[in-house]
Structures are given as structure tokens and as C-alpha cells.
Amino acid sequence: MSALETMMPAVKRAAVNGVEIAYYEAGPREGVPIVFSHGFPELAFSWRHQIQALADAGRWVIAPDQRGYGLSSKPDRVEDYGIDKLTGDLAGLLDHVGAETAVFCGHDWGGFVVWQMPFMHPERVAGVIGLNTPFSPRAPADPIAIMRKRFGPDMYIVWFQTPDEPEAVLGADTTRTLSFFMRKPMDPAAAAAAMTAAAASGSTFAFRDLLKAWDGTSGGEPLLPPDELAVFADAFREGGFFGPVSWYRNFTRNWEMTEGQATRIDGVPCLMITAERDAVLPPSAAEPMPGFIGDLETHMVAGSGHWTQQEKPAEVNRLILDWLERRFPK
After folding, report:
1. Which strand ranges, in their side-by-side order, compose the sheet holding 11-16?
2. Cys staple from 96: which of 14, 65, 224, 284, with CB 3.0 to 4.6 Å?
3. Are 23 and 66 in contact (CB under 8 A)?
4. pLDDT band at 186 (very low <50, low <70, confident <90, very high)
5. First CA to last CA across the chain, in angstroms?
6. Measured between alpha carbons, how far is residue 182 from residues 39, 177, 311 in Å?
């Protein structure tokens, strides 16, 4: 049996918001459910440690493969991956399971999605947990233009705006690609140097050039044992990268769509968990959050890089369960 079969509940499927969402559910169907939203390049499987721990603690847990990923639908239009669609999928999933509200917990790109839930579906939000990804209000200008100016043309999000090439590069060898991404953190100084070393343009976070130059072993210790890495590699080999990359291709469209959006989250309990050694989303990125969120609690996971729920699952589980017990007691 694969690690997916042995470490996750049986997959379920829901027709919501014009797509089919594959999801995993555990724990008693009572109280406020916790909905886990994964990032890039990930799957619901990224939350396997949290699903088990929270279910064992008597919590209702739901973790989807989001649209474009894993066993869920993969629409073929870029605009089908806008923030309105992504948040609508989570709201539709609540309708499917018969829940009025949920605590939404997101990591990486999933963090962007859950921080938008209080604005786009406020009636469905009991609380929000951000893992690594901070809340920030709408950018003052097109975020792609800002990133291009600040980080250079080869910065991965800017590069992802290019049609076809990112999917081809990332999908050429999915085991290599996922091995490159899913590694434990390097020494901070070494990580900063590595982010620019392979980019002739001097761009920061130039993952295309870094991946091409990677020797297969450098850049931190492997995060996952082979059987768990295979779950991710197999999923992207089967499903490709068009959907996941298209989330990024909606940055400008999302920015245009949210013109006039409020800049504060009030009346919603929020938990922010940062990771000390995340080179992409460092703890400093969360420092402005108290100015925008009325009910916020913040903690940092020491020694963790970007894949926090997989790197330091016991600490992440402890922080989430402690906060849930205080804010949403059973």
C-alpha cells in the first residue's frame, strides 16, 4: 500500500462550485470543523499529521486536494483558478458536509486563500489560522509589477506568468522537482546566497535556474522519506502543473477583483504561526499583522523551514489544538 493509503483517511468526493473536489475527512462530525488548505506544490496529504492528531483530539477535520491538484478537477482555463473560485470551493465544501461555518487553516498559497475567506465568505468563517503565510491588505499596485521590480524577471512568481514553460520545466521530472522543493532549511546565510547564485539576471527566488543547476543533493537535507515523497511526485506526474501554476497567474486578476476590499479583519479569532527559518515567508513578514487584525495570536516554530506542518508536526499540532481549546472549546 502507498503512504497515501496508509496515512490518510479514505478519499471522498464533492461536486461543488462547478468542479469535483477530492477531500479527506476525519474525527466526529460535531462542533466547528477545521478545513485545511494546502499550498504549492502540495496536496491534502501535506496535512496528514494534523488530520490524525486533531481527529484523535475529537476535532472534525476536512482537508481537500484543491482545484488543479491531486485527485480534484483540473479546469483548463487560467481564470478558473482565481481567488473567487478558490474561496468558493471551500465554501461549497462546507455546504456539501452540512457545516455552517469552519475554522480555515492555510499554509503557503492556501494561506492566501483562507485569509480571503473573511472578505469573500464572511458568514462561513468561525476563525482563521495562517501557517507561514501572513495576512496583508491589498497591494497598492499590481503585485506582479511589484515583484518584478523588487525581485527581478526570473523570480518564480513572475516567471510563472509565462505560458507553458513553467509546466514543462517543473513536470520534466516530478521526483526531482519535488525533491528540490521539499527539503529542510539550509543555514540562513547559505540560503540567501543560493537564492541568487544561479540566476544570471540577479533575480531572487529564481527557482527555474536553481532547479536546472541543482546537483540533486545540496540545499538542505531531504524533508520526506521516499514513500511520502512518491505521493507528491506521482500526483504531479499524473496531474501536471498547469492548475497549480495558474493559481499564480491570477495574481493580477485577483488584485483587480478585490478593488475596494476592506483592509481589516475584525470579529474573527485568528492564529498566525510563523517558521523561524522560512526563507520565502519569514516571521518578519507577519510583523504588520496586528495593525490589520483585531483578534490575533501569534507564535513562531523554532528551527522550522517552509514546510512547517511536515517539518515540525508535533509543535504545529500543539499550537493549533491549544488555540482551538481556548477559542472553540468542545
Report:
1. 11-16, 19-26, 61-65, 34-37, 102-107, 125-131, 270-275, 296-301
2. 14
3. no
4. confident
5. 35
6. 12, 9, 10
- 84-88, 112-116, 191-195: which range is least confident on average? 191-195
Name the pLDDT band for 19 (thresholds 50, 70, 90). Answer: very high
108 is catalytic: yes
Identify the bridge partners of residue 270 per DSSP, sorted by sequence position. 128, 296
Distance separating alpha carbons of residues 43 and 30, to the nearest angstrom: 25
pLDDT in tens, 26-41: 999 999 999 999 999 9
Please confirm, yes or no, whether 142 is among the known catalytic residues: no
Is 98 strand, coil or helix?
coil
pLDDT tens track for 202-225 = 678 899 999 999 998 888 899 999
Catalytic choice (65, 108, 154, 209): 108
Range 3-327 classified under CATH 3.40.50.1820: yes
Please report which helix (H) or strand (E) contains residue 19, including its range: strand 19-26
For 227-289, strand residue ranges (E) read 270-275
Query: Do 90 and 14 touch, CB atoms closer than 8 A?
Result: no
Pull the grid cell for residue 175.
Answer: 521526483
